[in-house]
Amino acid sequence: MKGLSSAALVAKNEEPEEFGGYFIINGNERLIRYLILPRRNHVTSLIRPSFSNRGASYTPYAVQIRCVRPDQTSVTNTLHYLSNGSAMMRFSWRKQEYVIPIMLVLKALVGASDKEIFEGVMMQDFNNTFLTDRVELLLRSFKVFTMKTREQCLSYLGDKFRIVLNLPEDWTNAAVGAWLVQKMILVHLDFARDKFRMLL
Fold first, then answer.
1. Which comes out higher in pLDDT, residue 90 or 10?
2. CB of 81 within 8 A of CB of 61?
3. CA 128 to CA 12: how far, in whole Å?
4. What's the whole-number mean pLDDT along residues 44-60?
5. pLDDT tens for residues 78-124?
6. How far apart are CA 161 and CA 108, in angstroms?
7. Domains of the chain (ranges plus CATH)?
8. What is the DSSP string of the chain?
9. Buried b / exposed e across 44-63, counting CB within 10 Å, b at 16+?
10. With 97 labelled, which of 63, 124, 148, 181 sits at a CA distance of 20 to 30 A?
């Protein structure tokens, strides 16, 4: 069919709008589509059986967002749903993956109370008993950390990530934690309150 005019190609049952580059395999037309990058700043729901291999209570369910900063660098945040009702936030730093309990991130962002988190997730739909149970499990699971304030949560994160982030030694743990939350969690949003609302 090479060298034929458009009219001659249509006469041979070719599609008039076809750009070419398709494949015929066993008599069937096949389309090959490359997924280069997920859409920026857009949440995507995922079901991948491989997520279950990440740990004992991990499920195949997650939501993922590729956040892009104004300088066009990006961070992918993934929120994994666990079978015990909890959720874990995953991100990468220097080609190494890290996972943080979502409750720790929420409290480090704005120092929200349990009531504020509960009402934010439920959004007045208190008749949904499945969701109510999950949020209660989420709140109860965080009690093992014994942290109540935003400052305590930031200090905890800063202490755990200080050696990895390689920030100045004279920074307090809370400052390191604040840098981590600002630079690694939902980086397309500037304000902690906006990040908090999106995570809810």
1. 90
2. yes
3. 59
4. 91
5. 999 998 888 999 999 998 999 999 999 999 999 888 889 888 888 87
6. 14
7. 44-199 (3.90.1110.10)
8. -TT--HHHHHHTT--TT--S--EEETTEEE------SPPBT--EEEE-GGGGGGSTTEEEEEEEEEEE-TTS-EEEEEEEEETTS-EEEEEEETTEEEEEEHHHHHHHHH---HHHHHHHHHTT-TT-HHHHHHHHHHHHHGGGG---SHHHHHHHHHHHHHHHHT--TTS-HHHHHHHHHHHHSSTT--SHHHHHHHH-
9. eeeeeeebeebeeebeebbe
10. 148
Task: Give the CA distances from residue 62 to residues 24, 59, 65, 79, 87, in Å, rounded to whole numbers and listed in that order.
Answer: 36, 8, 10, 5, 9
Rounded mean pLDDT of 1-14?
79
Instruction: Determine the Cα–Cα distance for residues 78 and 125; give it in Å rounded to an integer.
Output: 25
Counting residues of the chain whose pLDDT is more than 90, the rounded percentage is 52
pTM of the complete model: 0.75
